[in-house]
Amino acid sequence: MAKIYDHLLNRALAHVTRFNNRPQHFEESVAEHSFYVAYFALIICNFLEKKKIQIDTKKVLQMALIHDAEEGFSGDILTPLKHFNKKVHKAIVDVNKQMIGEAFDGLPSDLQKSLVGFWNEEQAAVSIGAQIVKVADKLSLLSKCFEEIQAGNTYFEEIYKWQLSSLKKLDHPWWKKIRDSILSGAEKQV
Asked: Running DSSP on this structure, what letter comes out for residue 13?
């Protein structure tokens, strides 16, 4: 049992700062980001349920909460490095896959196995649930950028426009059904 308590004491994600190469008015930890991803995923699930699209909201929330759990070891690897080329990206993905189980060290093996499974599913982005988390992740980035822009930080304007464009181009059938409702007014913000 002591291992479970030791796991509960680990707050590593609260100390991993996102966007650590950009000047920020408001630093955001991976833990804060994960909360917003889960919250936005919950909102997306609500919209989809109203459209009569079957969603396992509990599973989506579980994926959202742990989608960046590996960053407790790796830190927030910046996008330009992460996607420098296919070889670098594959190496990062491979290391994360090998390490992810350690993020849940100390938990009962069945729970650890489930969480690793949710993490792998989210990373693959094939299921609707995983795709929802990916969209919520982008929405969280938009929200962070907006907060910085509102405070006068122009460094985040380009990222905001890039992410908004990316969300508008997403071709998931489920996303097309709610995209306009979710993104209504987004263009006016920058």
From this structure: G
Beta bridge partners of 29: 17
Burial 95-120 (b: 16+ CB within 10 A, else e): ebeeebeebbebbeeeebeebbebbe
Provide the total of helices (H) and of strands (E) in the chain, helices listed first.
10, 0
| CA distance to 57, 85, 127, per residue, from 90 (Å) | 30, 9, 21
Residue-by-residue DSSP string for 60-80: HHHHHHHTTTTHHHH----HH
For residue 3 the two structure tokens come to 């291992």
The percent of residues in the chain predicted with pLDDT above 70, rounded, is 97
What is the average per-residue pLDDT within 137-143? 97
This prediction has a pTM of: 0.92
Q: How far apart are the first and last CA of the chain?
A: 51
Question: Which residue segments constitute the domains of the chain, with CATH numbers given?
Answer: 2-181 (1.10.3210.10)
Residues in CB range of 15: below 8 A, 6 or more apart: 29
* One-letter amino acid of 3: K
C-alpha to C-alpha distance for 54 and 58, rounded to whole angstroms: 12
**What does the pLDDT look like over 23-38, one tens digit per residue?**
889 999 999 999 999 9
Cα separation, 29 vs 32, whole angstroms: 5
